[in-house]
Amino acid sequence: MKLQLINPNTTAAMTDKMAVAARQVVSVGTQILAVQSATGPASIETAVDEALALPGLLAQIKAGEAAGVDAHVIACFGDPGLRAARELATAPVIGIAEAAMQMACLVASSFSVVTTLARTVPTAQRLLVDYGMTSRCRRVRATGIAVLELEAQTSDLLRKKIGDECRLALAEDGVGAIVLGCAGMADLCTELTQALGVPVIDGVTAAVKLAEALAGLGLRTSKQGDYARPGAKPYVGVMAQFAPAA
Amino acid sequence: MKLQLINPNTTAAMTDKMAVAARQVVSVGTQILAVQSATGPASIETAVDEALALPGLLAQIKAGEAAGVDAHVIACFGDPGLRAARELATAPVIGIAEAAMQMACLVASSFSVVTTLARTVPTAQRLLVDYGMTSRCRRVRATGIAVLELEAQTSDLLRKKIGDECRLALAEDGVGAIVLGCAGMADLCTELTQALGVPVIDGVTAAVKLAEALAGLGLRTSKQGDYARPGAKPYVGVMAQFAPAA
Amino acid sequence: MKLQLINPNTTAAMTDKMAVAARQVVSVGTQILAVQSATGPASIETAVDEALALPGLLAQIKAGEAAGVDAHVIACFGDPGLRAARELATAPVIGIAEAAMQMACLVASSFSVVTTLARTVPTAQRLLVDYGMTSRCRRVRATGIAVLELEAQTSDLLRKKIGDECRLALAEDGVGAIVLGCAGMADLCTELTQALGVPVIDGVTAAVKLAEALAGLGLRTSKQGDYARPGAKPYVGVMAQFAPAA
Amino acid sequence: MKLQLINPNTTAAMTDKMAVAARQVVSVGTQILAVQSATGPASIETAVDEALALPGLLAQIKAGEAAGVDAHVIACFGDPGLRAARELATAPVIGIAEAAMQMACLVASSFSVVTTLARTVPTAQRLLVDYGMTSRCRRVRATGIAVLELEAQTSDLLRKKIGDECRLALAEDGVGAIVLGCAGMADLCTELTQALGVPVIDGVTAAVKLAEALAGLGLRTSKQGDYARPGAKPYVGVMAQFAPAA
Amino acid sequence: MKLQLINPNTTAAMTDKMAVAARQVVSVGTQILAVQSATGPASIETAVDEALALPGLLAQIKAGEAAGVDAHVIACFGDPGLRAARELATAPVIGIAEAAMQMACLVASSFSVVTTLARTVPTAQRLLVDYGMTSRCRRVRATGIAVLELEAQTSDLLRKKIGDECRLALAEDGVGAIVLGCAGMADLCTELTQALGVPVIDGVTAAVKLAEALAGLGLRTSKQGDYARPGAKPYVGVMAQFAPAA
Amino acid sequence: MKLQLINPNTTAAMTDKMAVAARQVVSVGTQILAVQSATGPASIETAVDEALALPGLLAQIKAGEAAGVDAHVIACFGDPGLRAARELATAPVIGIAEAAMQMACLVASSFSVVTTLARTVPTAQRLLVDYGMTSRCRRVRATGIAVLELEAQTSDLLRKKIGDECRLALAEDGVGAIVLGCAGMADLCTELTQALGVPVIDGVTAAVKLAEALAGLGLRTSKQGDYARPGAKPYVGVMAQFAPAA
């Protein structure tokens, strides 16, 4: 199967990092097409960033559909544009936050999220409400790390910072698992699992395996109900280039 | 005060219609600047429409801030981009759905929403959850009317369709008020109130009066917490023109 | 417009204080009729106080209706008797807690309430549930100040106490706005807003501006549904004088 | 034990009816003191009725405390004044709606309420929220019977009307028990249980037995927390006579 | 009346302890049949314990029904097998957690639970959700005491430990009552109530009095709806002996 | 990987049916060990059935752990014993209801469940609450088919009955996907998907693919928190044979 892994920010180094993590978990025969948005912010940390990331993200969804991919993964922990992407796609579209949270629920009765800036916490909390996870997630913990600090390989300093916050979560929140709250932490998952002795879940790899699972079941995005394909209508200005195909 | 009324779709006729409604309720001294997005969809009915409307909407927010407006109203019942707009603005930003629902709660213990296409119902329902209104709103009722059918003055046929749905709401839902679920219905509010004998609330005029109220209290968007101004970061491609000012 | 501002306790000095605050924010042409209950407790801090405040409050609603006021404001942060008052009135009736919370939601994604005695916290929390604000309000904070300590102009000592609690709220609760939890704090709103750099919302002035907004839209209390006028029935003893007019 | 059964409306015939029902279920040694409010409405069906019933009800609580009763029952399905009464009392105070709903939960996984006028349904629904019963109660069903129609022995016509609504509840709501939504239906409980073959629960008798249970356990209203006794403060006018004892 | 008090673990000393507590509160004429499961764990602290306790518990329910008891009490704070027991029984079945929580709500606006091992906290929290008590219970507090430490009379050391946790609950949680979270604490209820000056509620005695109350009202488990008697079907192996009677 | 597929009832024909479905979706290298409980009910439709199925189910979990399987699937839509199983296992344990609901959320914004007897509906509804799916599942629909009617290959008559209910769900509930509410419907998934044109999700195959996904990520049941391994304690009688290994 062909799986499009979309980094919805415009930072190519981060795309590469995710792709490495994704390729380490794929089944035989799964091909990862790692791409990033051609337009938009270098990282997604605010509602403005998210809003301006959407056109580039949707363009990638359209491109992937045209290329016949079997699934899309949106690799940003805020799951930006998930509903819009599902309207455009017939292949399944998986957000890494939803994927990580689902996986966490299968191996622990509760989890905490360890994420980047405090600024992003409310976004995670809205997702928890939306996904029905408020009673499973005990706390969303910010580390104060900006997304772009995780652009390349994670430094020892930041590894320590993230590991320390995970340890605090285990000590104070009474949880059985940790969800990593940024695609840029994908390279830490294995070592943290070993160090902490509990499941540590990275959304990128979780989403890749869920995409394979859906593909294996032949499940595709429903085109009946809320994710039905939008009808054609006039789009004006630069947005016209991103509009759904007629 | 100077109030920017933003139609976040690109249909100028609809902007004019809203402006007429807004100007009928303003206090002495309030000036309405009615604008629409320069880029984006002709109407907002799907998640894709909403996503692609955001850059143009945010550009208007930036423009309004630069022009020193005292408040912004986002005149689409899905309240698109409300969080992002509040990040960019120091003036208050009011969505017409939130405004209409708040007003309805002050004059009735429950209300129903009468809206356009069935397609838009889930968006309204998500707003109800977000605004804590699930126990106050009994039902969101679709009329099957597309937004652009309401572009110019509402036809007699559509007036009847909307009025009939309102009557059904009163008969079946046990509510004390009706909220109109589209900015394009702003011209029907007065006649429906008279015909139905209950408060019928249009979000455009509700938002305009709330904006005046906030201005009268000197209240502006909090720059502490979630609506803090986004820091500068690289934006790539056509999105760079919509990015927050440095 | 003629707006009846009702202090539902029997302390005239507090009525005067509210009236001053109200008159500072009214639009040209709005007349404030400030009154207090003729019977009942000197302040409202317990369920017993609230229960025994209701007859006097409803008598004022009746009097105001007879006098043809355009709106009523119930100026006690517990919003006592709001449903009963709306049954009796055709003019809109606004409680200052509901008003303040609505305004806070328009300028901040979350707020904390700073109120008087710990005793009153559960009342505020029940209102939060009733108004759908539980996810917007992070915390209700008691200062330990009795309502009657705020009877006249607020002393420097109490100003400091209240200001300190507001600062704690900003530091610990992560909120973007403060709601003042007592009508007796109405004189502190402007200075606290300036001192704290975030929106500080007083319910008295918020309610007054909402009342003007409703009047400007021609919205009146729905007489269909839960707020329908009660039918006549026998009332016995001293309560007969407070009963709804036949 | 001495149990004060308070009819919070002023209709003595209804008090008598309740007392008969209560005396049929008491244990040996339990004495029922059946009283009604000396001031207030003849029946409680609206928020205004409830507000104006509170002073008379609280006066009875005070009188019962002075007389040393072991428990109080407030015999109106809206549980009016329950919090205020608990502030005044050291003996337990039980509302008949809370009592009936608790009992229903012990013998059925879900129940419906069959009540009087549609007007009273929202009150019952607010109690369901307050008591955490929203998932246990499937529906609150109005029969259109005014409370005073149930003043004396229930007529055959009304028995049939109520029985029919109970049958509808069983057929349509999938519930295992019926809760009768008015103290005036206390005389129907036994015959309906036999006719319907499911538990039919009347709040008056349920509350009496709960009061005996609490007394048997030596449990009294907590004077720590929200039900602490209110401190003395000035009460003005006719309300002074109802105020808590110094 | 004949009341079967079932200890669903296999530790007879604990049964004796509960029986003593139960007999201290029964009315004249109530006979306590205290029994324990013949098969299963010595104490119930995990989901595995609970699962393996169920066959023995259900066998006791069957035996009690055959013996014509008037009510069953399941005396373990996790209310294990309550739904299954109600399917098998026509007499009422009361769990001690549900009983204690109901009683607490009648005498205090909020309570905390003081229980045994931290391991059992999530079970109590699931019950709170199931019983609609999440807003009434402020906290479930573990003392770290294993259930079997409470097998015989509670030692002075453990009395102190439990008393201290109750005091912490009052000091930190702002509650008006304490619920004891283990049947093995039944002997502490009276002394703790006196020492703490607030209602302290033990589920065993609470359930016994509720059982008497239900019996006094003639209420029995509904056989319509979810608690209908299971039809006969093949049961294989050792489980056949526990299966519902044909 | 070695995946233990546990049918927690004692009907071997149903085990075979599930195994066929499971083997159709496994990846290369996944081995399905299909087993059923040695003791317990022939089908699980009531709380009593579930209670008496647990010992046999847990025995299989123990056996699978001893055999070193990489994951367990509990193949009954009530997800019986899931928490207890996770306490016993270090391999992941997946319930088919949780699996199916998770998959449904990835391809549709809402779904309905089509299940067997009305009797089983409350169990499904409790799972929806537990899994945070109440806002995603619009309705649980019973077909009136007993589980054992689905023991062998599903008859044409029952296929039609189930298909018709699915069509009703799509027509009336406005959902985008169907979840099949019984492991015995696993053979219908593909044909229903084709016939209905929307995703139809069977829990057995969904769980198998999720198990592979978890294995691919190296995720195992957390032994910290609620799923920690139970300590040894005395188990009496026939239950001793099912107790956790020392």
From TrEMBL, chains A, B, C, D, E, F:
Organism the protein comes from: Polaromonas jejuensis
Protein name stated in the entry: Aspartate/glutamate racemase family protein
Domain of life, per lineage: Bacteria
Stated family: Belongs to the HyuE racemase family.
